[in-house]
Structure formats: structure tokens, C-alpha cells
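Hi there,

I know you've been waiting on this one. I reran it after we fixed the sequence typo, so this is the corrected version. Both the input and the resulting structure follow.
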Amino acid sequence: MKKNLLSDVQEKLLMGPGPSCVHPSVYEALSRPTIGHLDPDFIAIMDEIKTMLRRVLKTENNLTIPISGTGSAGMETCFVNLIEQGDAVLILTNGVFGKRMEDVAGRLGANVDAIEFAWGTPVVPEDVKKKLDARTYKIVAIVHAETSTGVLNPVAEVGTLLKGSESLYLVDSVTSLGGMDVSADEWGADVLYSGTQKCLSCPPGLSPVTFSDRAVEMLRKRKSKVPNWYLDLTLLTQYWDGAARVYHHTAPINMLYGLYQALYLILEEGPENVYARHKENHEKLISGLEELGLKMLVETSCRLPMLNSVCIPEGVNDADVRKRLLNEYRIEIGAGLGELAGKIWRIGLMGHTARPENVNRLLSMLSEIIRR
């Protein structure tokens, strides 16, 4: 028998773009006994997860469930249930995940328009308004917190532009949910998806989604069958809702235990306290980075508290610094993606990671490596 590789896995301080550190009580929840996916005790947990998700998302939407899959599965769920061949879709793009939306919508046969904004800068509502004045779209999509750049987009302002229109408003909140205010109903977001591995501080594997009544009605009026069986919400809702639960797929029971506990922790601490903790540690990190002479990619007014993009100084080797942090100090930070590869480090302060002792540890080790 070969050596069991799991014995070599050591805990690391996860300060990259995700996953984040997991609270001990979430690990404990994951280790609870597995029961059947139609067991009454498990159905009670499912129902409470839906209730807690609505509170954290600030929505009254009945259709609010976690999809069995990562945040990318949530993205596909939203698009695949609503797009039919030739539908006009507008994507507001200023990073990798806006580009991924374009790809997913295009693969489904949508007629995709995109407004491109410079990476490291936010979406400009005035430019969006001009586009909306010129054409009607079935879906307008935006990333709330662009993980590839650390930019916060003006989701509420864009939502205001769509009020009273026929367009569905689709929001990616993968990085923001659990780390800053997400107000789905107030924004007018008809469709929103997230992931468990960022500020919810649960391992990757689930993607919360919420659909407004208007989005559900559009789903019901489809002329063609949803082209993806696994992500078809007309089938999934028969398992997640109603007195008689209809088997769809074997739910990842222990992962859902983990999500239950992660949401419980946020509500126990108080969402506003959680968001304040993220902001305070973000400010502490920025102050320390500036003392080291490092500059940020994103302007202060549109920086994310949970994802910080740091410009790599001239003469400093990107990969070497990250490798030494990981191998010598067991700290993970992220590299730049796309056109920002080799130009920035992405430092995450997500969920359980967003604590002063973690900020202090990173700053100390980063200072030592840069000095060398």
C-alpha cells in the first residue's frame, strides 16, 4: 500500500482569492453522521438553510437554494435556466468573471453584448444607461465584487437604471456574500448567485442562488426545455420545496451541514458586525502594506474589503514571493489573472480569515521576504 497522502496535508493560512480559512465548528459540522437526503431531520436542515440564506441575502424570494456545485455552477444555473436561443444579453465586464459570464451566455446561444471597462476600475452607470437606451435586453448581468481585480461595482446604481424595465437583473455575489452588505431585493436583483468558499468560510462545493418571482415566471414561460438536466430549477425545486420532496440527485449532505453552520455563525455574530470586521481588517492590511512601500491597484472609493490587489514592485519576482510565503510560512496569497498576471498579488481577507492576527502574520512575513 502506498503512503496515504492525506497525512501530509498541513493547515495553511489561506489569504488568497479563495478558499478561505474554515471555522472549527464548520469542520465539526462536516464530520456529523451522514443521513439520507430524504430523511426528515435532513429536510428540516434544508428548510433552515433556505431561511438563513434569505436573511443573509436580504431577500424574500421563495426560490432561494444552494446548488450542488461551486460558484461556477451557480453562474451556469442562472444563465441556463433563463437563456433561450437568440436572447439578447448584456454583460458589464471589468475582469475575468465578467468575461466568464460572456462565455457561458454565448455557449447557450444568447446574442451577447458587452460593455468593457478597464480592469481595476468599476463599471460606469452612465455608460450602461446609454446602452440600455439603445436596446432592450432580456438579461443584464454584473459582478458585484470582481475577484480578479478587487473592484467593487455599483450594483445598486445599475439596478436603479433597470427599474420598471422588462430586463432581468443578474448579479454575481460569489466574493461579496458574507463579507459585505448584499441586498438582493433592494438592488432589484432578479437573479443572484454566490459560493460557499469565500466569505461564508465553508469549503468549496455549494453555490447559493436566488430567483425573484419575475425570474421564476420567465423560467416557467420558456419555449424550450432547460438544456441542462442537473441544473434545471424546475426539477430542483421539487426536491427543495413542498411537502412531498421529489428525488432529483443525492444532495451533498455533509457539505450542507457545513453551510448550515457557516450561516449560523454569521447570524450569531450579526451580519453588520461581520461586515465591520472585514472592513477593519482591510484597513489594517492597507495601512501595513503602505508602510512597506507597496501600492494598491484599485482606488480607495471602489476597493473590496475582502480582496486586495497589491501592485508588485519592480524587481520583485511574483512567483518567488508567493512560493516562499507558502513553503516557508504556510501562507497562501493569490496571483494576478489574465492581463494582470505577474503584475499584482491578490490578498484575501474572507470570512474566518479576516482577523487581525492573520493580517499581522502576513505583513511580518511579507516584509521579511521583500527585505531579502
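Quick highlight: Residues 24-267 form a domain with the Aspartate Aminotransferase; domain 2 fold (CATH 3.40.640.10).

Best,
R. S.
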